[in-house]
Specification:
134 residues
C-alpha cells in the first residue's frame, strides 16, 4: 500500500484544486451544450426522454443526482458544513457534473481546516495522507 499525500509542499491542497477544476469543466461542458440546445430551439426536457438510450441515461443521472443530494446533506451536516443545502437545488438547476466536484472540494477544504484546528498546522499534512492500494 502506497500513501499519497494530498497536500502540496507549498501548502496548496492538491485535491481541492483537482476537484475545483473538475467542477469548472463540468459547469462549462454541460452549459455549452445546454445553451446550444436552447439556441437550436430544442425541447430540452423532451430530449432527455426521446429515445430508449437517452431515457436510460436520464434515469441514471437522476438517480445519481438524488443520491448525491442526500450525500451532500448527510455528510455536510455530519461535518458541520454550512450552506451545503444550497448544492441540492444547484444540482438540478445547474449540473451534477458541477455540484459534485464542488462538494468534494468544499469537503476536502473543510476537513483540512478541521484537522489544522484540532491538531495544529504541522499535523495537517499527516491528516491529508490517503491510503491507496499499490
Amino acid at each position: 500500500m502506497v500513501l499519497v499525500n494530498t497536500v502540496h509542499p507549498t501548502g496548496v491542497v492538491v485535491m481541492v484544486v483537482v476537484y475545483a477544476v473538475l467542477g469548472l469543466v463540468g459547469l462549462v461542458g454541460t452549459w455549452f451544450f445546454n445553451l446550444r440546445s436552447g439556441a437550436a430551439g430544442e425541447d430540452y426536457l423532451a430530449s432527455w426522454f426521446a429515445t430508449a438510450a437517452s431515457t436510460s441515461a436520464a434515469v441514471d443521472l437522476l438517480v445519481v443526482a438524488v443520491a448525491a443530494s442526500v450525500f451532500f446533506l448527510v455528510e455536510g451536516r455530519r461535518l458541520g458544513m454550512r450552506w451545503v443545502w444550497a448544492l441540492v437545488p444547484l444540482t438540478f438547476a445547474v449540473a451534477l457534473a458541477f455540484t459534485f466536484p464542488v462538494f468534494l472540494a468544499w469537503r476536502e477544504w473543510h476537513l483540512r481546516r478541521r484537522a489544522a484546528a484540532v491538531t495544529g498546522p504541522a499535523r495537517t499534512a499527516e491528516a491529508g495522507s490517503t491510503a491507496v492500494p499499490s
